[in-house]
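Long-time lurker. I teach an intro course on protein structure, and each term I like to show students one example going from raw sequence to a predicted 3D structure in token notation. This year I'd like something fresh instead of my usual example. Would anyone be willing to generate the tokens for the chain below so I can use it in lecture? Attribution to the forum is fine with me.
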Amino acid sequence: MKYKYDVIVVGAGHAGVEAALISARMGANTLLFVIKYESIGRMSCNPSIGGPAKGHIAREIDALGGEMGRVTDLTGIQFRMLNKKKGPAVWAPRSQNDRLQYSVEMRKSCEQQDNLDVIESIIDEVIVDNEEVVGVKSNLGEMYFSKKVIIASGTFMKGTIHIGSTHYDGGRSGEPASLKLSDNLLKFGFNIARFKTGTPPRIDLRTVDFSQLEVQPGDPNPTGFSFYRDIKPKNLVDCYLTHTNPETHKIIQNNLNLSSLYGGYISGVGPRYCPSIEDKIVKFNTKNSHHVFIEPEGTHTIEAYVNGVSNSLPPQVQEKMLKTIPGLQNAKIIRYAYAIEYDYIIPDQILPTLETKKIKGLYFVGQINGTSGYEEAAAQGICAGINAVLALDKKDPLIFDRSNSYIGVLIDDLVTKGTNEPYRMFTSRAEYRLFLRQDNADERLMPIGHSLGLVSDVIWQRFKKDQELIKKEIYKLETTTSNKNPALKEPTKFANILKRPEISLEKLVDFGYEMPPNLSQTVKDKISFKIKYEGYLTRQLRDIARFENMEQKKIPQDLDFMKILNISYEAREKMNKIHPLSVGQASRISGVNQNDITALIIYLRKQNYEKS
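-- Reply from a regular --
Happy to contribute to a lecture. Here you go:
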């Protein structure tokens, strides 16, 4: 065959790039398709990474050997740790990035990666033989063959761009849509629906009145996303805050009928947690103002992202609206806001490996599964890339679960519960979030990355050295007594002093603690968290043990739940549709109650007894 690969990845956004790089790094001969070569790894919306839960995911991707964290740290122009006033479970790194440079670095990573070819082409068809994928076909009629195909189509499948009453085909601004692939998938029996998302206008920073804006600087000692790579994050720009007002809202309200969203041009469901400004005005009509963030798109451009006013209004209304916002009265728009509709696959049709149930060897990742966000997409890409190669090598799959990662929470939510709106990750979605912190992503996932050959021996040795240092220091704190401070009524272990809310590791020096030299802030934080939250973590680890016990109760994949008459009819129907891999997953299906789970466990025990 002329074009034959081990793994083919369709789409080179955040999901596709991670999938392709991971596949190639695991030794598979990999082909990556992109519609426009210059757009590899492009940040279509806000050039930022991280935030609550998203920052956790970005660090998990790095711990596994992914690319997002490294490129983010290389191209970041401002770094902040969000939620520092709250508990460590919700601390979240966030960066503002140079949009162009991020894409350049991702493209460079792909071009320099062994075992990876990149071709600019539109893929129209997946080639299937006897319910197994065998390759893909391009719009030029070229056929490429592979046993594993990963679709990472983003917003390109039948993408339609809307600005007021104007609408046209496009995967994003300036790039063509993929018009035939979703029809091809429909032929194979996939259930397809439509979602909508949007982006705000971009403005010329030189036309902004900064005297009317509130400055939002980066952190004095910025924290990045990558582990043990010696990349020093730098703050090169400030971001700014302003607000809409009743005058802004009045203009939007008076022109709602001209909006694509409220003018009847859009049928797709939009994101609940990142609504357009039209949605905010309609759904939160008692609010007199909304936040608007002015965020530079790079250090070598005058372009800025107006975060908070995503819309699909006509250009003249966008201009009129912006002029009512303090600091933006004279702002010139460089790119107008637009909404985009696209096809996605209802995600209950995929397995926890992200392989489809209908076609063996075919994987879906990113927005095609109904998610939103760069980080959620990249996480799915790394999962599918790993599992595609493991399947090629006839090895057991890697299943991320809710107890070991936000990646596991994300994938389990998708395949078990589905989604009827663009899915976004939050820390509140994780049951074990005190354990799933952003700072310990390396402890949770780097052993997996190293075992797969994705984490270098150099990084692995540095990780192990830090773990030994943390263990040694915690032992010292738990076994050494302080009696050198008048605030102590009696000799007290350093660990017990550190558990006091007002005491930090640094303050223990006042109690006679000898701080090891050159202890990094990351290590200090880990030591402090482990001791301060010891009781909570112990309880959470017990909960995790119970969770894992349920996950280990496996369900045969050929089981017909309709035959288990002690389970309610609704539960049998839903379990037959999802085909959960374990009792734990079955218990999380909507409509399945505890009585159903008890009946399922009894049935499985009885079957095992009869077989034995």
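Some talking points for your students: The chain has three domains: 7-197+342-451, 457-542, 553-611. The first helix runs from residue 14 to 25.
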